[in-house]
Design brief:
Belongs to the MurCDEF family. MurF subfamily. This protein has 462 residues and is α/β, with parallel strands linked by helices. It is built from 18 helices and 21 strands. It has 3 domains: 84 residues, Udp-n-acetylmuramoylalanyl-d-glutamate--2,6- Diaminopimelate Ligase, Chain: A, domain 1 (3-Layer(aba) Sandwich), CATH 3.40.1390; 212 residues, 3-Layer(aba) Sandwich (UDP-N-acetylmuramoyl-L-alanine:D-glutamate ligase), CATH 3.40.1190.10; 138 residues, Mur ligase, C-terminal domain (Protein-Tyrosine Phosphatase, Chain A).
């Protein structure tokens, strides 16, 4: 494994100091001793519920190359490999900035109300046809995850893909500045975090801040149907950045046509630079076609041969909790696993995908959508027409979904419970062969417990 950080790199990046001269060869970065690996540099982050300083001894015993701390650690020998800094979170941020500045490859950043992680994974898969790719792990997209992604960035990698998230005003700009992308993708503007952001205009303005970190003549990509398109156009104009749109009209920079949505896969044609190219995806869903169009636009902006992207894009597979289709454990049926997170837009999209699967019976299992604040009830109730037209039986959990459940036609009402765990035996009791279940809700609702119980464990591990 290649060395990411030496003692010289660490002191230059953070301004910290070791108690004595010592050679350091760090091959990874960790902020969690539960997943630490030999050779990692352990950064003792002080969180709301845990202080990483309490775990430094454990990290060093597990083989950490060194630890980064802001407080003296009782019981450690004087020559212990500990870099002392003023603030460990700032040190992580400084390491991310240092790693980004020394990186000579291309950087792509992705933000959006929905679809960030799926688009990131799709882009990562496609870029692998053109070189080595470093991408954010999971949904590492906040003030910890973004610098952590950069601090783990190997110097000799060809491409880096970062994900940038937000739920409050003012969060995008500093993270985007840290990433300094050559290309940015904004997947969508929707009602996610509406409780904090108040309206869609504020969300669009906040998302547009990613464009301010793109260099002059760089590229930003958005769906042509995105809410607040004029906001993105104006920001791009001010920054002298090329804003490219993806859509189905002749006005789109990347035109998507001849869309075929099937139960197992999708196909479409993309027109770009007067080239007409046919693409296929191994997963169903119109939203994936839109995401693929954004990925194609990014590939084109990199100036590589887009023909090579065709087979790479076809190999992309959706991940657990993000649209993966799994077999039921006991019956001959399927689960559309959308359990990782939810917004009103993503639930509507998932319901459309469920209908593509053409099951004998469509069972919809929904948990609450979080961070909607005073708009929560109206946002949840806005789903009623979509649910009633796409479901044969509905199970719900959470206080907001109870309001939705109570307004469903009685024939659609399966059951409501306070928690996902309580729903499991009720769902199991009604399952029949050829049923297909959609399971979706905010991550804190723990909807994945339903999926784990109902699906074949051996398949889920894959």
């Amino acid at each position: 494994m290649s060395v990411l950080w030496t003692e010289t790199d660490l002191t230059h990046a953070t301004g910290g100091s070791f108690p004595c001269a010592m050679p350091i060869k760090g091959t990874g970065i960790s902020i969690d001793t539960r997943t630490i690996e030999k050779g990692d540099i352990f950064i003792a982050i002080i969180g709301e519920n845990s202080d990483g300083h309490a775990h430094i001894q454990k990290a060093l015993e597990a083989g950490a190359a060194c630890a980064i701390a802001s407080n003296p650690i009782a019981g450690l020998p004087e020559n212990a490999p500990v870099l002392y800094v003023k603030d460990t979170l700032q040190a992580l941020t400084d390491m991310g900035r240092y790693a980004r500045h020394r990186f000579t490859g291309k950087v792509i950043a992705i933000t959006g109300s929905v679809g960030k992680t799926t688009t990131k994974e799709m882009l990562k898969t496609t870029l692998s046809a053109f070189g080595t790719v470093h991408a954010a792990a999971g949904s590492h997209n906040n003030h910890l995850g973004v610098p952590l992604t950069l601090a783990r960035l190997p110097i000799n990698t060809n491409f880096c893909v970062c994900e940038i998230g937000m739920n409050h005003i003012g969060e995008i700009a500093p993270l985007a500045e840290l990433v300094s992308p050559h290309i940015a993708i904004i997947t969508e503007v929707a009602s996610s975090h509406l409780g904090y952001m108040q309206n869609l205009d504020n969300i669009a303005k906040e998302k547009s801040q990613i464009i301010t970190a793109i260099p002059v003549q760089g590229v930003a990509l958005v769906p042509e149907s995105i809410y607040g398109l004029e906001i993105f156009k104006e920001t791009a104009k001010q920054q002298q950045v090329h804003l490219q749109t993806v859509g189905t009209t002749s006005a789109a920079s990347i035109q998507i046509s001849d869309i075929h949505l099937g139960a197992q896969k999708s196909a479409f044609q993309a027109t770009i630079n007067k080239q007409h190219l046919t693409f296929s995806l191994s997963s169903p869903g119109g939203h994936l076609v839109r995401n693929a169009g954004l990925v194609i636009g990014a590939i084109n902006a990199l100036g590589v041969d887009i023909q090579h992207a065709i087979s790479a894009l076809a190999s992309f597979q959706t991940g657990n909790g993000r649209g993966k289709i799994l077999p039921l454990q006991e019956q001959n049926g399927l689960v559309l696993d959308e359990s990782y997170n939810a917004s009103t837009l993503s639930i509507r999209t998932a319901l459309q995908t469920l209908s593509l699967l053409a099951p004998a019976r469509k069972i919809v299992v929904l948990g609450d959508i979080m961070e909607l604040g005073e708009y929560s009830e109206q946002e949840h109730l806005s789903l009623l027409p979509n649910i009633t037209s796409n479901a044969d039986l509905v199970f719900c959990c959470g206080s907001m979904m109870k309001i939705v459940f109570e307004q469903l036609p009685p024939p659609l009402q399966g059951a409501w419970c306070a928690s996902a765990q309580e729903l499991i035996p009720l769902i199991q009791s009604i399952l029949q062969d050829n049923d297909t279940l959609l399971v979706k809700g905010s991550n804190s609702m723990r909807m994945s417990a339903i999926v784990t119980t109902l699906t074949a464990p051996a398949i889920r591990k894959n």
